[in-house]
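Narrative summary of target 7.
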Amino acid sequence: MFLDNLKTIAVQVLILYLIAGIGFVTDKTGIFRQKDAKRLIDLLFNVILPIAIIHTFMTMEYSKEHVKGIFIAFLCAFASHIFGYFVAKLTFRKRSLKEQGIYHYAMILSNAAFLALPLAKSVVGSEGIFYCSVYVAVFNMVAFTIGINEISGKEAKIDLKKLILNPGTVSVLMGLPLFFLHLDLPYFVLYPMEIVGNCNSPLAMIVFGTFLANSGFKAVFAKKEIYFVSFVRLVFIPLCMLGLFYVCGVRGQLLVSMLISVSAPVATNTAMYAAKYNNDTALGSQLAAQSSVLSIGTMPVIVALATVLK
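Modeled conformation, tokenized:
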């Protein structure tokens, strides 16, 4: 069973990276460059991703299991980020605050929106998006507060308003009452939302590919610190959380969905926030690029373990 699951998930990961290859090629050929992708990111995060999340909540079957699953998903997501934060704070203590911050950001925050959501859709289906959307909401809460504080070298203060006022959290807060009310909205409302939401996965991976194209692969595999961060992000934290979730009784599609989110590589926006807060943009790109390449091997194993244990 493990090998069958491993093969299935590996194929899905490969498919997503093949789509990312489109972004890689179009960047190298000048058709669609990283600077174009950065503009598209605003559309993805602020419009397309929220619509995909809201549509999933609107169309998900209302059941006691799903209601319980939402609350467990929130707990799992918070536990993952809190654990990642304390693990990160034990590392790189002798480095400057800026250097510490970019490494810590990379270890704490996974590529939940760009890679985990598309993979969850492929492996688990709409239920995967349902639970992973909760993880994305928590990701945004951490990224816009603790994450920015870390990557800025403690220069940017934590803005508690950002806990709620960010696209991921707002979309979940809008989706939750629609899920509980389970309104029977007309086809001409739901279908356009479905079409737009379906754009999230391919567009996110194409954008992701442009970042890989600009990472400088020689430097990506040259620094031992980057290997350490990749190990923590891709292996140590996911395995620890898999053990914790399992001991706490998390099972089924919820367990798989959470592990897909937890085992995703370094968040792509590590490089973007590094640029915004005057940190090392090249290092941010290298951290995301190396962990992304290595995740082709690690994510299928971690997620396959979760499918066996579910």
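The mean pLDDT is 92.
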